[in-house]
Design goal:
The chain is an all-alpha fold. Helices cover 57% and strands 1% of the residues.
Length: 270
């Protein structure tokens, strides 16, 4: 064997080792992510296809005017929905914020226009366009065994600045506001943390784990049934409002007392 032949064989062997390494890395990645399994690569079944088709029809009737017929969005009117996921759609539709009455405006919570089946159909259609966070399951939002103390700490650290320590909501800058959480379902609270609607930041599963999200949900929903030992809660919006109401009440009492004393002296003078 000549030296040149040996060098060529060593070079070919090196390329072969690199190729084998790449194939092994790809196989391991496919196993970890599940992309190599037939189930993950399978197309939607007939029921899912029917739901997606129904969702597309509902979307075109109720949402396409603002978001575009391909959900691509329109500048200055409505954002693109490609990639936002089913969870974002379910949150906006189930809380009645969408379909919006006025494009471009901040939409408050109101009775939903679409029922649950229609809501999930539109969510499935949007998810089929670009993936994104899915609607959480009942097990994901279950508060069974949740840590209320940890949920309170997480809520105060991440949410109370806007939503108030009890979830009563509050004003934000630029005329915006953080809505009260008194009517929010566990699913809607989870979806809000997962998708970050309006001015709210996104708390993904790395920032706040699924277990911690359940702890937060347990705290928020548990606060609704906590008694008010001091009497009327005044909406639980904090000591500033309570102090203002007390001040105005005392001021009114002093004005009425002054009027009564003045009227009494006037009668005595006559």
């Amino acid at each position: 064997m000549t030296p040149s032949t040996a060098r060529r064989r060593r070079t070919a062997a090196g390329y072969g080792v690199v190729l084998l390494g790449l194939l092994l890395v790809g196989a391991v990645y496919a196993v970890i992510t599940g992309s190599g399994s037939p189930a993950s690569a399978a197309a939607p079944n007939a029921a899912q296809q029917a739901q997606i088709a129904n969702g597309k029809t509902i979307f075109e009737q109720n949402c396409a005017t603002c978001h575009g017929f391909a959900a691509q969005g329109q500048t200055g009117i409505a954002p693109s929905l490609i990639g936002v996921g089913a969870a974002a759609v379910d949150f906006q539709v189930s809380t009645g914020r969408m379909p919006a009455k006025q494009p471009g405006a901040e939409n408050p919570r109101k009775p939903p226009v679409l029922d649950t089946a229609q809501d999930h159909a539109v969510a499935a259609y949007i998810e089929s366009l670009g993936g994104g966070p899915t609607i959480p399951t009942a097990a994901q939002v279950s508060t069974k065994g949740a840590d209320l103390a940890l949920g309170q700490s997480l809520f105060i650290a991440n949410c109370a600045q806007c939503h108030n320590f009890s979830g009563a909501g509050g004003a934000l800058t630029d005329g915006k506001y953080a809505p009260p959480l008194t009517q929010s379902t566990p699913t809607q609270i989870y979806e809000a943390m997962l998708t970050g609607p309006e001015a709210m930041p996104v708390f993904n599963d790395t920032t706040v784990t699924p277990g911690q999200k359940r702890d937060v949900i347990a705290y928020v929903t548990g606060e609704r049934s906590v008694a008010n030992p001091g009497g009327a809660s005044l909406g639980r919006v904090g000591p500033v409002t309570e102090g203002l109401v007390t001040f105005l009440g005392l001021l009114l009492f002093m004005v009425l007392a002054a009027l009564w004393i003045t009227a009494k002296k006037a009668k005595a003078h006559e």
